[in-house]
Amino acid sequence: MKVIIVKDYDELSKVSAQMLIGEMFQRHERVNLAITAGTTPIGMYEKLIPEVKGKQYFDNVHYYNFDEIPYKSGTREGVTISDLREMYFTPTAIPEERIHILDETNYKEQDKRITEAGGLDVILLGIGADGHYCGNLPGTTNFDDFTTKVRCDEVMKERIAPHFEDRAETPDFYVTMGPRSVMSARHLILFASGEKKAKVMKAFVEGAITAEIPASILKMHPHLTVIIDEAAAKLLDKEK
């Protein structure tokens, strides 16, 4: 595990964008990236868009979402892919044939189709204050799970309800790449920003591998890069 501590959110966004661009340049053949939605990557996408848009030398880059919260009615695309389109795919004009959507209809085939496409080269991950990554929240998946469906209890429904203007659209389940699927990628990049992530980053970097911090399993990956700003790193033992 390599830990990179940067000054602030702007630098974190810049370093993350540079790292993804570097991965895109690594190979002449197909490059497969799984990228994240949420708030942390907003600044990174703003920096990435002008570097990628219209560049034919990135036509070999294919994109995947690693989790999805569907609309209960099924009348529109899920929350994750909708956010990724708004933040990155649409402003960058990524063609549809290079966007490989994971949703409630195809999650059972996710791992097979990724393997047939050559495997994921990179997964860009955020981390929640509770230690979750992708849809792997405490008590929802096991370390040996591949891509799976997670049933939502009432507590989970309340947690995801704010994603929907109409609460009636809150689903009874979501789908996510499980730990075994994520660990199959060649390179994992995890980033975090702000004081609200300081406690979990201390537990992640310095603590044990435990189901209470689902992301802790990622420390067993042979090529894990962690990018955090000074606020998120404030509780770390710098000597360690």
TrEMBL record:
Entry keywords, A to Z: Carbohydrate metabolism
Sequence ranges assigned to domain Glucosamine/galactosamine-6-phosphate isomerase in this UniProt record: 21-219
Top-level taxon of origin: Bacteria
GO molecular function, one term: glucosamine-6-phosphate deaminase activity
Signal peptide residues on this chain, from the entry's feature table: none
Gene Ontology biological-process entries: carbohydrate metabolic process; N-acetylglucosamine metabolic process
Residues that span the membrane, as ranges: none
Protein name: Glucosamine/galactosamine-6-phosphate isomerase domain-containing protein
Biological source species: Candidatus Enterococcus mansonii
